[in-house]
What does this fold into?
Amino acid sequence: MVRWEVMQFIYENKLKYATILLKISDSLTRRCMNRKMKSFVIIAIMCVLIIAVFSGCSLISGEHLTEEKLVKRLEGRYGKEQFSVREVDSKTWEVSLTKYPKIKYCVKEKIGKSSIFLVPEYKVTDDRMEKVGKQVAAKYFSADEMKNIKYFTGMIEIRWDIKVNQDISNLSSKIDAFCRDMEDNYSQIVDDAVVNVFFCETPLVLPGHGEKKADKKDEADDKSGFDTRYRDVSADVANKFPVAEYDDSQSLELTAEESVYGIKLNGFLLSRYFEFKNENDVMDKIQLIRSELRRYIKEQPMLIYMDYPRNEKEVEPPILTKLSIRL
It folds into this structure.
């Protein structure tokens, strides 16, 4: 059964493998001037391709999950006799903890892509954070707000789209209560999980990278070097802004970013990692830093005016704030 699944995975992806290997072959043969050498390289590549497409178990990486191995994993996390395991099928098990009988989550074995090599790999996933998170989130977030929450194995991701300089105190309070509830009432399940929170201010579209020019005057303004100046001054601001005066943690970082986390930002990334049970004032510090950083940005005319030194066309550099909260 396992061999067939691996064969199926490779078959579905064989075109990608073939394309990559043929590109390698083409690159190598271009460098080889000798015809005999070219023929040898082509034959060698085709042999590798055939093996990659038609060999099954030899290409799989990782460790196959069994119920016995799962029980050992869970004993390491929860301790012996603290849980029960029920097999759903050959690749899925339902886990129930003695301490939380109403919470039942699933552990699944999947065959996915290796992050290093182009071969299938055993992966273990679970929905423990989704089972707990959805139950707790309903106490603190509206139905629309809950649409911004995504669940992964051992992680929750929350993304808020906010306006530039929008106050985040209300959202921060909700996130604090959400994390505290999980930590206080479901600590055994959520222990060591991470809640990643993103406060995403509206990204800035630089001239020439978004909408069409309205007229030749606008086009001339766009060619005045604002793009380069904006990026240079942004980097300088990120380097000089005294974040340590507000929070001296080494887990706090401020950088200027054109693009980050799949967002074309053209602004600043303010990120902070912390352990929820050990630090209680991070939310307040982050709000203060955002406020002071915005004030500092406003004092940089070369950054906020497209037409500096005329100072008629103002832009608002966005700040993307990321909190990584370890429960």
